[in-house]
Amino acid sequence: MHKDVEKILLSEEEIRETVARLGRQISEDYKDKNLLMVSILKGSVVFMADLMRAISIPCRIDFMSVSSYGSGVKTSGVVKIIKDLDLNLEGYDLLLVEDILDSGMTLSYILELLEARNPKSVKICTFLDKPERRIADLQADYVGARVPDEFVVGYGLDYDERYRNLPFLGVLKPEVYGG
Ligand code: IMP
Ligand code: MG
Predict the structure, then answer these.
(1) Measured from the CB, is residue 169 less than 6 Å from ligand 1?
(2) Per-residue pLDDT at 46 exceeds 90
(3) pLDDT value at position 75?
């Protein structure tokens, strides 16, 4: 375990099983479709890299980078596109791949933006779901695991841009946030 981590919520083994299950399910559901997996940088990168290799049907991937307006901790959901998708969405069955669905404000904004580009269908796959924190009227179609209302790091998720490289999902010791 890392010195800053208080407890592990999902071990590497549990994450592997979770991703394999999602991969099987998505491969089955999209076998007659035109799957395009899209993720928003940077938190979802680790999940995306594992999930795409757990998918046994042809698929494409694309990435988008956004930044939230304002500097507060609370997200308004309104975002500025820093890097847009490379692909035109028409004709694709879009699967948005997210690290964590929290308030859902950011994702609901992006969803609206991408739906306007006429993909054939749009669904959401999130590695983690924190349903207690939801503000936007939004649900994921595929959920890896539900987590309690605690700040989690690892497997792509950061605190102040750190800990993304931890291979497990954990909760930090309170003194790490204390400064
Ligand atoms: P939302 O708009 O509130 O749903 O924001 C979701 C984004 O906030 C995620 O994509 C993460 O980057 C970040 N986030 C939310 N909860 C956590 C957490 O527990 N750990 C790390 N990042 C988080
Ligand atoms: Mg973050």
Answers:
(1) no
(2) yes
(3) 63
Backbone φ and ψ for 95, nearest 5 degrees, come out as: -120, 110
Closest CA to 39 of 14, 60, 9: 60
Q: What number is the average pLDDT over the span 69-98? A: 85
Task: Measure the CA–CA gap between 41 and 160, rounded to whole angstroms.
Answer: 15
Mean pLDDT, the chain, whole residue set: 94
Query: To which H or E segment does residue 88 belong?
Result: none
143: amino acid identity, one letter: V
Distance in angstroms (rounded) separating the CA atoms of residues 86 and 157: 24
Stated pTM of the model: 0.94
Query: Which pLDDT score, from 0 to 100, does residue 72 have?
Result: 55
Answer whether 97 contacts ligand 1 (Cβ < 6 A).
no
Does residue 83 have a cis bond before it (omega within 30 degrees)?
no
Question: 100: part of which helix (H) or strand (E)?
Answer: strand 93-101
Nearest CA to ligand 1 atom 9: 100
> What pLDDT is attached to residue 165?
98
